[in-house]
Structure prediction request, 119 residues.
Amino acid sequence: MQLACHFSSLHSHLCLKAQLSHTLVSHFFIMPKLTNNPHLAVQPDFTSEKYHQAQECLVNDDVNHDAAAAQLALYWALNNDLEKEEWDHQVLQEQQEATEKERLEEEEQEMQQTKCKRE
Prediction:
């Protein structure tokens, strides 16, 4: 029973997390800067022996090992989708910052040239 409650709580948490928009997630949670592009991530094989212990946490009278592996894959995919959104936002923000920095440098250079012409 305790395991079923834990699964239900985890499932509810993940469903809620999946429903939040990127803006809402970024507003309420400080997301660490991603260093690896999640668009390139490969989903693990949750049916492998390596994930047997994780499957055991989900297995009950209604959920067998195959269903548990499918749930792990779903949770991974939901998390990966959120990370993709965060990555895309991060890349866009970095591009905007670089563009703004370049604009400011050009503006400063023009001001210096104008100043030199006056002298």
The chain has a mean pLDDT of 83. The chain has four helices and no strands.
